């Protein structure tokens, strides 16, 4: 036993701290430490024995496996030659603060106080599966280097915090199925995926293959998870985790290109999820089927996963606010089939996924407002199809570009905005700049606020219903609006606009809109129908211009009256014929279902006979078209 070991032996009964001297007096045998802690030295009367050693170099094996030790163990700034072993031990308090270790075996250890490794330097694995720590597990400012798993702590139970603020960890951290009563603190930590995943055991091989840096599946945290300003190079997986407090990655950086950077699928986050500030992720953020209370914040975040999903949160249930203001995303942002019980705001967001979907809100049920306005921009499709929004969908001042080629305005071009079967009390699209078609088919809107100056080249409107238009619908502007529909001959959009115009008290404008619809249908019909349609248009304006029919009758009546006044026809039976009246005779020719007795009593000859035939034919045409128009009018009524 050297001088340092004798000093430690004498100091143990009273718990007096011992500090190693010069290099020659730094070595302490691990066996000496073990013997002291297993009862080789009894406590001094009235004192509490404890092992307090700093600055020493521990040689040989330090093992307390299956031991029960009540004395506190405080090893500060020590260097271990071999890995300490405390498997299945029952300890009161143990600290390896600022120590240098080749690893630590602490499987199923029970620690009544803290297990501290703050400031430690570990070149190997910290093995703690099944550990039960009544206090906290402290790794603040620790540096851990492992080619495989850095911290293996499945089923760990921690009564306090897991504190690893400013830690520098290279290797996989596994706390799956654990329970932590306090917080998980990774503020400003640096965590890097293992460099040799083939050295990882089978249960964690899949996570290692995905460049995992944290495996926390089914972890229960009664406090919060804080990794503010942290840096993660690899996947953080918190599948089915249940966290009572806030989960905050504010100002953090996550990197896992082409793979998942953060996986929160089916997690329950009762205190909200915070990915805002200077948060940056290269790789996919996933929160599918997650349940999030309070707030989901992405404000100012920068997400990058080109050609893939930057954010996947389908079937998510959010009880609070979705704050994605000023988010910048390169890749698809998807929240399809999610339930949003608070307002959702993408104001000022910039989403990019050229040739694909930039924002997918299909099937969303939102009880409040959804804002895609105030500088919102998307290169790629914005889809809100089949969604139900309880208040307002706002696209004011948004810039939507379906195709990376701004000149691509073909009707077959990708939709810039799809609102198919949307249900919303108010839709705002004022001064919205849209490059690409817009799909409003079968949408149900209460109030539609738009701007005629910014209508896209193609508007698909079949089945769209609305109660009010703002600005108020002017017949000229709205006819131009309907004309942008590639299926412009479809009846419903015109009748919907006409019903709104009638509700505004503008019957003349309503008739003009319906006349435009009939003309559009005629242009797309076969030639017999086109001929008949042109005839109806010229004569009675398809029934929407009744004064035109009256005018034609007056013209024909005047022409016939003048002709037959100058050349009265001869009587068929001179002895029985009534007095000839040119006006009545012409009316008898023009009105097919009326008989004044003049037509049968007189027989025109030559050219005037052909004139009578023409008048009879014109009368039948006018009568038929008027009847068809009346039928349409009655059907509309």
From TrEMBL:
Organism, scientific name: Catenuloplanes indicus
The UniProt keyword set, sorted, is: Membrane, Transmembrane, Transmembrane helix
Q: Where are the transmembrane segments?
A: 547-567, 579-598, 610-631
**Domain of life of the native organism:** Bacteria
Provide the protein name: Membrane-associated oxidoreductase
